[in-house]
Amino acid sequence: MELWSDLRMPAPIRLRELIRTIRTARTQAEEREMIQKECAAIRSSFREEDNTYRCRNVAKLLYMHMLGYPAHFGQLECLKLIASQKFTDKRIGYLGAMLLLDERQDVHLLMTNCIKNDLNHSTQYVQGLALCTLGCMGSSEMCRDLAGEVEKLLKTSNSYLRKKAALCAVHVIRKVPELMEMFLPATKNLLNEKNHGVLHTSVVLLTEMCERSPDMLAHFRKLVPQLVRILKNLIMSGYSPEHDVSGISDPFLQVRILRLLRILGRNDDDSSEAMNDILAQVATNTETSKNVGNAILYETVLTIMDIKSESGLRVLAINILGRFLLNNDKNIRYVALTSLLKTVQTDHNAVQRHRSTIVDCLKDLDVSIKRRAMELSFALVNGNNVRGMMKELLYFLDSCEPEFKADCASGIFLAAEKYAPSKRWHIDTIMRVLTTAGSYVRDDAVPNLIQLITNSVEMHAYTVQRLYKAILGDYSQQPLVQVASWCIGEYGDLLVSGQCEEEEPIQVTEDEVLDILESVLISNMSASVTRGYALTAIMKLSTRFTCTVNRIKKVVSIYGSSIDVELQQRAVEYNALFKKYDHMRPALLERMPVMEKATTNGPTEIVQTNGETEPAVLETKPPPTGLQPTSQANDLLDLLGGNDITPVIPTAPTSKPASAGGELLDLLGDLNLTGSPAPAPAPQISQPPFLLDGLSSQPLFNDIAAGIPSITAYSKNGLKIDFTFERSNTNPSVTVITIQASNSTELDMTDFVFQAAVPKTFQLQLLSPSSSVIPAFNSGTITQVIKVLNPQKQQLRMRIKLTYNHKGSAMQDLAEVNNFPPQSWQ
């Protein structure tokens, strides 16, 4: 009876019926219930060792796995199917192994022997299944064990097996690179094959070997003429139905050969020369009406740009990209803009010919195309086209989405600073940016514009009048209000006198000027920093205006009790100036001098700037005159055990957060600091009775050029940091190091922080950096001054820590600098 009941057990449903049933489910819960019911039936069948329907059950399990349901309990059943002698069982078993197994699970090692047997099977289709599985999920152990069988199949005359063996060899090389030489003899003969499938996979194998081994790259360069011949035959061959795609013969093989030629021709004159003609033929004979032709042309352009090609060929490649910009397909336009952005530095004049088309892309509806077009437009700006390009970019700034405004404004600032035809044009351009997108500009825009205005002496009256009119009744653009407040405080007398020659002067009274500044102080839109600018401007006007000094005193005294600590401190100090230090007020509040950048010891160099050659002097920012508090310098001394060194800079002590100590100790790492004496407290300097009394008339450092060669302290991932050196003539033991950080990548590096530590026999002081953003494409630098006291004249060593954000990721790196020139410490 039991045997009779087994015979009457219903057969499991077929895969097609399961798919139809699951698709009838109206809800997720109903589908889940069906899957669970079927999985339970499959588990029961597996437990009963049902060989009849194992293949069907595993196939259904794979379908459920593809729907996202767990199917790991079928792994061993896959191995049983692989061991079966039936081809249908092996096919499902190998498919299940590729989907359910990977090298992280030890189960996969159990199939090594089965794969080895199947690689030596008499049927090519079984051998093909084993090759596919090994090439898909073979671990490094399996690849080592089976590499010999794969190499043997590479030499077979069967093209069906050779193409699968070539792809399997690619996987073996990726897993075990040292086995590469095993495949070298067999690989040489693969290019003689007529079968396109074998040719395609052999080119993939050659590409992998060349990318992984410089020796293989040099070895295979002699195959360039043969590859050129294959590519030429593909172009010149007539219609071939089995290889034709949209009228082009085997575009997949053409693309693969072009990629391999790009690798072989890179940095090699002979190989590049051998492929110049065929690249020109491909570029001129390929049909562009279909996407297939565009794919081949794009690969051709990349190859031309990457090898040492002729100048005429490079112009042809850029013209192809220019035609891509007119294509209706957004992807093709984006690819063209990205490629032009990469080549603009080397072939600037050729890209300039397509400037109008690139500018038109700024009006595209696609945000990705807009961003690439904006970046490329900035790269094309030079002294000859700056007016026209800035007009287009300012129009773009007016109408673009908010996420573009910050980058666009920064780009306009940099381009205007570099190529401005006149100072008035420069000031007008930056003011236009501030009025259009002032709230989006970066923090360094305000001090940079103030410096520009200060240095343009003849434009002071014009600038202050323009800024005054710009903020009348509108305080929403905070950077604009900050610059306007600073200029009104600095040049308010010129505004009231109406001495503007550049445009029609306006009549403004002293009270009207103070009304504007007081409105900024009480406006809800004004940030704390903006109010600080306005209060300082009002204070400066006390020495420039004559009739409203009493009103200014009243305003300043009111803010002496402000809840804003910054405003309160300013107001209290300014009140003290009016009372106790009134004799010093005119001198302290006199007009700012012209801010000149100091040149380094290096000679004038010729630099290339967007297609124009012009002389430029390498520049760094001078050390700030205001020095940091003593304890900030001595905290590092305490960490380094410098209890016997007196501070270099005697200024008022302040406290420093304890967390900085841990970072500096991490920085020191393995600098081999011997001994750990108890840190001595920083010497107490008698503090002046008031902050303003500490103003010194003599600079502590009078730096002179000492002819010390500069060094590159760090160069990695596009970030480069150079050190230049100066020695103090007042204290020969002090070395002043100016760091310059530049960024050669295509995106800005933000939140840049430079930290340094030295052994305990030195004293180090880090002054504030010029900015926290390093502009892309080497279009600007961050400068920071380090002062090092070396009383024992020992060799200087330093450990540096760099943190910054780039491409959305937080980056951090440590490095040691041990190559300081002897002149810097002897």
TrEMBL record:
tRNA-binding in keyword set: no
Transmembrane region positions?
none
Q: Where is this region: Disordered?
A: 604-626
Output the superkingdom of the source species: Eukaryota
Give the membrane topology, semicolon-separated if more than one.
Peripheral membrane protein
**Where is this gene product found?**
Cytoplasmic vesicle membrane; Endomembrane system; Golgi apparatus
Q: Boundaries of each GAE domain copy?
A: 706-821
Q: Which UniProt keywords apply?
A: Cytoplasmic vesicle, Golgi apparatus, Membrane, Protein transport, Transport
Q: Does the keyword Repressor apply?
A: no
State the family named in the UniProt similarity comment for this chain.
Belongs to the adaptor complexes large subunit family.
Q: What is this protein called?
A: AP-1 complex subunit gamma
